[in-house]
Specification:
The protein is mainly beta.
Length: 287
């Protein structure tokens, strides 16, 4: 982890580098001041979880006391808890055993391998049990894992709660394709265009606006080194001060892509999070 001071142009606020041999597979923030990184070693087939403070990038804890070395993933967060799930079968990735993890300590509060995890919301965990001819839904206490109530086959109730779950994740802001359907497109399009003139038209830029700033993700076509070489693309992230019409940050996330990468960054408060080369988690603090 490295900390940087700010200058006239923005610099990384902090950077976390994954251990040798591990790739950053997934990052998942809590509503408060933590982010959990899921790191995978593809050759060794093992997974590592590292919790970082969003305030300075320092490790809060790492490594969990989980027997499963590979077939487990981050599934959700709610309040100050993370929820991890194993797969029932490697060749059939249906979620299996549930782990509730305290984000402050890394302590596993409870485990459950009888229920299938759905989502966590407002201190409750919603799960299901699948039978031959029916599916029964349950509500568990997120701190203890104890069943609070059974909801039978009331899928309408669960679907309604899923909408509230989506709303509860609004503290994470993501980008949208930059076209006429983008909020504020007509207002900022002329300010953004000069900074993305080299964008490949086959891959629409994605933009998130926050106050006077626009965070942009787009792709450019790399110059071919050999005749008939397969096309490769670079993935660019830029932060633009719309009011001053100036570029205040730029980074190349990937240089040899053969496909389009959407949703490469998100914002939480005044912090921009993105992964570079699958080995660095970079944060930028907006002024």
């Amino acid at each position: 982890m490295k900390l940087f001071s700010s200058g006239e142009k923005l610099k990384p606020f902090w950077v976390f580098k994954s251990p040798d041999g591990f790739k950053i597979w997934k990052i998942f923030p809590t509503r408060y001041d933590k982010v959990l990184c899921e790191l995978r070693n593809l050759e060794g087939k093992n997974v590592k979880f590292v919790c970082l403070s969003t305030e300075n990038g320092k490790k809060v804890w790492e490594d969990l006391n989980i027997d499963e070395p590979w077939w487990v993933q981050i599934s959700d967060s709610d309040e100050d808890l993370f929820f991890l799930c194993e797969f029932r079968r490697p060749d059939f990735p249906v979620q299996g055993k549930i782990y509730a993890v305290d984000s402050n300590s890394g302590k596993i509060l409870w485990e459950n391998e009888e229920h299938t995890f759905l989502f966590a919301l407002d201190g409750k965990v919603y799960t299901a049990k699948n039978f031959i001819e029916k599916r029964i839904f349950f509500e568990l206490d997120s701190k203890t894992g104890e069943v609070i109530r059974e909801h039978g086959e009331n899928v309408d109730f669960i679907n309604e709660l899923k909408e509230f779950k989506s709303e509860s994740m609004n503290f994470i802001e993501t980008s949208l394709p930059f076209d006429e359907y983008h909020p504020g497109y007509d207002k900022i399009v002329e300010d953004i265009k000069p900074f993305i003139e080299d964008a490949d038209p086959r891959f629409p830029p994605e933009v998130l606006t926050k106050g006077n700033f626009a965070i942009v993700n787009y792709h450019i076509l790399n110059k071919s080194k050999l005749p008939l070489e397969i096309e490769k693309f670079s993935n660019i992230l830029k932060i633009i001060n719309i009011e001053q019409k100036s570029l205040i940050y730029e980074d190349i996330l990937y240089r040899d892509l053969s496909y389009f990468l959407p949703d490469v960054f998100f914002c939480k408060g005044d912090l921009v999070f993105y992964v570079k080369n699958q080995t660095e988690l970079v944060t930028i603090k907006l002024p």
